[in-house]
């Protein structure tokens, strides 16, 4: 928060404006506020700006009564009770909302701790409330409930909320009304329901948390539990404890209890005698053959559903058949082993945890009924409604009623003191059972049996259900054996047993998926800046492909896999990055990373091997709080902040804002410079002298040379003129882009010889670099197509146009401006255009961004007129297709037509297809 206001004493207003939610933002990766997924809520406090917590009578006491666990928040003091001190000293409602949103998520089962609240520059009373989230829908609803709670504690004359609907999670099926009276218990039930529906379950979450501890990145691929660990070719996928290595045939085998038993029996492992039946009569007949007691269960079932044990009469067997038949047409009748129920977890052929499972039960006190004892048991905070807690609440359902009835009891019966009332036949945690860790005491013979069972079925992760009177004794002496082998076993009972030592069973799974020395990442290259991002990204991808790598590339023109476009459009945001990172064929990801995606969602990756900031120029200012070039540098600098310690940050030594990023850039610094050899800025000279990496343009008698400095040595790479994309050195912007691309390639350990060879084959053809300095020679006049769209881009282009200007001919230009530029920027671009063109045709950009039709063209025209371009040499044709046609139609042999389009591909097709009715020149095929 900003500095606290002095505690003034003013009367409460009678008609205060309510709290307002102005904006919300969901950050799914590293962002301007932190390096983790977060939610941002922009609040306007209105009159409440004058009322910190210590000026609101009873507020602090009421808040702590509702959420006593807030007393554990350290806040700026870094120790429990710190936040309470802030409340007592006086802090603002935005800051309070942040802490409440964090605590509500923790109470719902998703513990989070990081948040910050800052005032919005230039907007008194507005605050950005930012807090961590592990599931964005839960985070949004927690923010909404936090505001409702804070509002409910205000004096009546200060209450009121506007814009709360912004925080309602998309697609949430709820009866919660944003204007209904606040009820913490009811609203928390909605939040917990959202956690159960959308948060990762305990097994998947444990694997993701273990991956995070090891620095292994993860991507959630669906709304359930399909998660990718690692990037690109180095990825492994999991769904709960099913891994990418789990054989389908093994899973199918484990799901067929009859086949499982057959295979285990053939292997000489102890399994109960039994058979598969289709009718109750067959079940009774098999029970008599096997001998009582018997167990009935579905052939294909899980979580103990439909399982009945201790069946000792034909009537009970028939009843058990009916219970199982509800879940499967085929029912298993088998011998009941004596003893206790154990789950042995086998990972990669090794036993890693053992838990004794105790069926759901209550212990009598001679006073309360079974129903009352169940209600008390369910008050244990470790019990939840699903799988999200350590244990599950006990539910009195038909199975419980039948079990009690067999003993002549009902839920209203009162057990005697210390009498144990077992409420389930099975010991599954999902039906209210408990778990006791037995990992350290299992007998070696039992370990061998469990290991062999998992290997016989073929499961990399297996849950062996093992019945034995004493797990510390050999099953070969005590009797008992394997009653089931489970694919996708739950980890909950091992991670947090009711009694005993918790076991980190996720660790051996990660050891199996990523053995020592196995990569979990691919090199990620993130390239940002105001100008040159797309061309530099394409150059880097071209170099890496030349080096034999499978490359995934995102650009403003589309997504490419090994040079083949798989998706078109502006794909410079985090979602596009994750398309590449989730592709299992990609060895290196080259990601053009734009300002808009960073502001909208954060980065699409947690860290990169090489981050590059090419330049910072005035563009898109005045949007989303980015008012100055310094603000823009702060946004784009995030790319080098997340460079890994072993990586490389590539920075433009000639750009003061970029060069200054060395203070926060990760990894090793690599500078590039167009002017370093001439002016030798002090920071570059010192960097080279210290043995740092630098790519510098150095003039020679035969042309500019691209030179690498590294480790105090000088390595010439090639002449800039030999890079086709530089148009024999005239396209200075591509000389600079080539320097950046070389620096990035060096950061990826590409040999210098390979870099030079690759750049000699990189051209500005439309096929290699669409929309970037594409020259068409198929008409009697030349056509240059480029995407320059801001003052700095136009300034660079003007130098090339001067070099290309025909001896006897005109230069005709087509240009349009996006509506999100400031008036002063549009006017400046008009000034630059006046110096480039003899005929300027102004079109309308597709993105007017709220501007009236023609306003952008008119402002550009004003700038051109002010710079001295005569009015008769300016035309306004708003439709882009018509504007391009007019330029091409007006061109004469020897002219140069420069088209700066919005729709690049359509414009190129139009250029190629153009037939001048006056010239009637035959076009080449």
From TrEMBL:
<dbReference type="InterPro" id="IPR044019">
    <property type="entry name" value="Cyanophycin_syn_N"/>
</dbReference>
<dbReference type="Pfam" id="PF02875">
    <property type="entry name" value="Mur_ligase_C"/>
</dbReference>
<dbReference type="InterPro" id="IPR036565">
    <property type="entry name" value="Mur-like_cat_sf"/>
</dbReference>
<dbReference type="InterPro" id="IPR013815">
    <property type="entry name" value="ATP_grasp_subdomain_1"/>
</dbReference>
<feature type="domain" description="ATP-grasp">
    <location>
        <begin position="261"/>
        <end position="514"/>
    </location>
</feature>
<dbReference type="GO" id="GO:0004326">
    <property type="term" value="F:tetrahydrofolylpolyglutamate synthase activity"/>
</dbReference>
<dbReference type="InterPro" id="IPR011761">
    <property type="entry name" value="ATP-grasp"/>
</dbReference>
<dbReference type="InterPro" id="IPR011810">
    <property type="entry name" value="Cya_phycin_syn"/>
</dbReference>
<dbReference type="Pfam" id="PF18921">
    <property type="entry name" value="Cyanophycin_syn"/>
</dbReference>
<dbReference type="GO" id="GO:0071160">
    <property type="term" value="F:cyanophycin synthetase activity (L-aspartate-adding)"/>
</dbReference>
<dbReference type="GO" id="GO:0005524">
    <property type="term" value="F:ATP binding"/>
</dbReference>
<protein>
    <recommendedName>
        <fullName>Cyanophycin synthetase</fullName>
        <ecNumber>6.3.2.29</ecNumber>
        <ecNumber>6.3.2.30</ecNumber>
    </recommendedName>
</protein>
<dbReference type="InterPro" id="IPR013221">
    <property type="entry name" value="Mur_ligase_cen"/>
</dbReference>
<keyword id="KW-0436">Ligase</keyword>
<comment type="subunit">
    <text>Homodimer.</text>
</comment>
<dbReference type="GO" id="GO:0071161">
    <property type="term" value="F:cyanophycin synthetase activity (L-arginine-adding)"/>
</dbReference>
<dbReference type="GO" id="GO:0046872">
    <property type="term" value="F:metal ion binding"/>
</dbReference>
<dbReference type="Pfam" id="PF02786">
    <property type="entry name" value="CPSase_L_D2"/>
</dbReference>
<dbReference type="InterPro" id="IPR036615">
    <property type="entry name" value="Mur_ligase_C_dom_sf"/>
</dbReference>
<keyword id="KW-0547">Nucleotide-binding</keyword>
<comment type="similarity">
    <text>In the C-terminal section; belongs to the MurCDEF family.</text>
</comment>
<keyword id="KW-0067">ATP-binding</keyword>
<dbReference type="InterPro" id="IPR004101">
    <property type="entry name" value="Mur_ligase_C"/>
</dbReference>
<dbReference type="InterPro" id="IPR005479">
    <property type="entry name" value="CPAse_ATP-bd"/>
</dbReference>
<comment type="function">
    <text>Catalyzes the ATP-dependent polymerization of arginine and aspartate to multi-L-arginyl-poly-L-aspartic acid (cyanophycin; a water-insoluble reserve polymer).</text>
</comment>
<dbReference type="InterPro" id="IPR018109">
    <property type="entry name" value="Folylpolyglutamate_synth_CS"/>
</dbReference>
<dbReference type="Pfam" id="PF08245">
    <property type="entry name" value="Mur_ligase_M"/>
</dbReference>
């Amino acid at each position: 928060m900003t500095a606290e206001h002095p505690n003034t004493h003013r009367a409460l207003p009678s008609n205060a404006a309510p709290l307002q939610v102005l904006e919300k933002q969901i950050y799914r990766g590293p962002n301007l506020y932190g390096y983790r997924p977060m939610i941002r809520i922009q609040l306007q406090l209105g009159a409440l700006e004058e009322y910190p917590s210590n000026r609101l009578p009873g507020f602090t006491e009421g808040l702590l009564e509702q959420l006593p666990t807030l007393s554990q928040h350290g806040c700026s003091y870094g120790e429990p009770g710190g936040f309470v001190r802030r409340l007592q000293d006086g802090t603002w409602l935005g800051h309070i909302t942040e802490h409440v949103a964090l605590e509500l998520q923790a109470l719902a089962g998703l513990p989070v701790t990081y948040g910050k609240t800052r005032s919005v520059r230039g907007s008194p009373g507005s605050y950005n409330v930012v807090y961590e989230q592990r599931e964005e829908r839960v985070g949004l609803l927690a923010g909404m409930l936090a505001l409702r709670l804070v509002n409910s504690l205000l004096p009546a004359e200060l209450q009121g909320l506007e814009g709360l609907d912004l925080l309602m999670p998309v697609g949430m099926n709820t009866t919660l009304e944003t204007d209904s009276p606040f009820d913490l218990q009811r609203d928390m039930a909605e939040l917990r329901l959202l956690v159960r529906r959308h948060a990762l379950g305990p097994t998947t979450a444990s694997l993701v948390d273990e991956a995070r501890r090891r620095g292994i990145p993860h991507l959630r691929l669906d709304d359930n539990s399909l998660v990718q660990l690692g990037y690109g070719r180095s990825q492994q996928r999991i769904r709960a404890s099913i891994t990418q290595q789990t054989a389908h045939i093994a899973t199918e085998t484990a799901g067929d209890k009859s086949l499982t038993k057959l295979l285990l029996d053939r292997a000489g492992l102890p399994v109960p005698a039994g058979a598969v039946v289709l009718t109750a009569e067959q079940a009774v007949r098999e029970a008599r053959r096997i001998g009582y007691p018997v167990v009935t269960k579905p052939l294909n079932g899980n979580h103990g559903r439909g399982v009945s044990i201790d069946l000792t009469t034909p009537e009970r067997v028939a009843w058990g058949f009916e219970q199982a038949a509800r879940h499967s047409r085929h029912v298993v009748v088998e011998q009941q082993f004596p003893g206790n129920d154990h789950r042995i977890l086998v990972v990669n052929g090794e036993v890693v945890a053992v838990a004794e499972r105790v069926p759901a039960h209550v212990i009598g006190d001679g006073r309360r009924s079974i129903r009352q004892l169940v209600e008390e048991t369910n008050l244990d905070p470790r019990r939840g409604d699903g799988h999200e807690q350590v244990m599950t609440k006990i539910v009195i359902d038909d199975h419980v009623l039948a079990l009690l009835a067999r003993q002549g009891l009902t839920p209203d019966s009162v057990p005697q003191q210390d009498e144990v009332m077992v409420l389930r036949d099975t010991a599954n945690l999902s039906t209210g059972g408990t778990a006791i860790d037995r990992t350290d005491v299992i007998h070696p013979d039992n370990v061998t049996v469990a290991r062999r069972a998992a290997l016989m079925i073929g499961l990399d992760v297996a849950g062996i259900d093992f019945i034995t009177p004493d797990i510390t004794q050999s099953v070969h002496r005590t009797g008992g054996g394997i009653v089931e082998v489970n694919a996708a076993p739950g980890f909950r009972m091992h991670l947090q047993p009711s009694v005993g030592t918790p076991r980190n069973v996720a660790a051996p799974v990660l050891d199996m998926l990523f053995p020592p020395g196995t990569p979990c990442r691919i090199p990620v290259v993130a390239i940002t800046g105001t100008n040159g991002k797309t061309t530099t990204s394409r150059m880097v991808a071209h170099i890496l492909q030349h080096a034999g790598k499978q490359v995934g590339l995102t650009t403003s023109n589309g997504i490419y896999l090994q040079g083949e476009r798989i998706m078109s459009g502006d794909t410079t945001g985090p979602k596009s990055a994750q398309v590449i990172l989730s592709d299992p064929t990609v060895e290196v990801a080259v990601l053009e990373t734009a300002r808009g995606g960073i502001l909208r969602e954060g980065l699409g990756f947690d860290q990169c091997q090489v981050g590059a900031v090419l330049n910072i120029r005035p563009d898109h200012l005045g949007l989303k709080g980015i008012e100055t070039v310094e603000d823009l540098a702060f946004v784009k600098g995030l790319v080098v902040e997340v460079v890994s310690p072993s990586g490389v940050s590539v920075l433009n030594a000639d750009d003061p804002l970029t060069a200054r990023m060395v203070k926060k850039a990760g990894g090793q610094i690599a500078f590039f410079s167009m002017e370093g050899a001439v002016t030798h800025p002090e920071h570059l000279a010192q960097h080279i002298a210290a043995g740092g990496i630098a790519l510098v343009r150095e003039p020679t008698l035969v042309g500019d040379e691209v030179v690498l400095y590294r480790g105090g040595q000088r390595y010439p790479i090639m002449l800039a003129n030999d890079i086709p994309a530089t148009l024999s050195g005239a396209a200075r912007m591509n000389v600079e882009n080539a320097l950046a691309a070389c620096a990035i390639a060096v950061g990826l350990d590409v040999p210098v010889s390979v870099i030079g060879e690759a750049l000699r084959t990189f051209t500005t053809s439309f096929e290699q670099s669409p929309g970037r300095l594409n020259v068409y020679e198929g008409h009697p006049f030349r056509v240059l197509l480029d995407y320059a769209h801001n003052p700095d881009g136009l300034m660079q282009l003007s130098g090339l146009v001067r070099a290309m200007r025909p001896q006897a001919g005109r230069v005709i230009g087509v240009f349009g401006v996006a509506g999100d530029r400031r008036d002063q920027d549009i006017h400046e671009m008009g000034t630059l255009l006046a110096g480039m063109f003899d005929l300027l045709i102004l079109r309308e950009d597709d993105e007017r961004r709220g501007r009236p039709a023609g306003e952008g063209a008119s402002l550009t025209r004003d700038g051109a007129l002010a710079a001295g371009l005569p009015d008769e040499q300016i035309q306004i044709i708003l439709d882009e297709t018509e504007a391009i046609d007019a330029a091409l139609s007006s061109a004469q042999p020897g002219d140069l037509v420069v088209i700066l389009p919005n729709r690049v591909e359509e414009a190129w097709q139009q250029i190629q297809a153009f037939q001048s009715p006056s010239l009637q020149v035959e076009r080449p095929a």
